[in-house]
Amino acid sequence: MPTQRVLLVCSQRLFGESMEMVLRRATGIEVIGPWDLDDTVCSRIPEADPRVVVIAEEDPNNEKSVYLAATIMEQYPDLSVICMGLAENVFRVFSTKTLPARSTDLLEAIFGL
After folding, report:
1. Are 48 and 76 in contact (CB under 8 A)?
2. pLDDT in tens, 101-113
3. Which domains does the chain show, CATH number per domain?
4. How many whole angstroms separate alpha carbon 94 and alpha carbon 98?
5. Which of 7, 16, 25, 85 is most buried, with most CB under 10 Å away?
6. Strand 91-94 to strand 80-85: parallel, antiparallel, or no bridges (unpaired)?
7. Other CB atoms within 10 Å distance of the CB of residue 48
8. Banded model confidence at residue 94, pLDDT cuts 50, 70, 90
9. pTM of the model
10. Binning pLDDT at 50, 70 and 90, where does residue 6 land?
């Protein structure tokens, strides 16, 4: 199984360090970061070459996190983005996938959500 390069982005140092510890303990994951959630994240993504970007925020619905996730999806459609927060016991996965244009594939995609 290939190693998954995961870029961790977080504006709160303690939360970022905690998430980094969790991810580094997992087999098959190479952690990049944590990086601060700032305006340079998108421009620095090519140098990190991640497969997944994890945005860990106290409130994953805040404007800065949502904007970053949308910008990453627009500029780097091959990357998956995972948004998670302290306030909720869920995480959101955003991914752009291309499927053949057949009705059965459309139905599978709908039911798979």
Report:
1. no
2. 665 566 666 665 4
3. 4-112 (3.40.50.2300)
4. 13
5. 7
6. antiparallel
7. 14
8. confident
9. 0.81
10. very high
Helices of type H across the chain: 13-25, 41-48, 63-75, 103-112
- Cis amide leading into 46 (omega within 30): no
Instruction: Report residue 72 CA to chain centroid gap.
Output: 9
Partners of 91 in beta bridges:
84
- The structure tokens listed for 16 are 């970022």
Which two tokens mark 9?
Answer: 């982005």
Report how far residue 4's alpha carbon sits from residue 26's, in angstroms, rounded to the nearest whole number: 10
For residue 59, give both structure tokens.
């409130």
* Whole-number pLDDT of residue 98: 63
CA dist 58 and 85 (Å) reads 5
Report DSSP state, residue 3: P
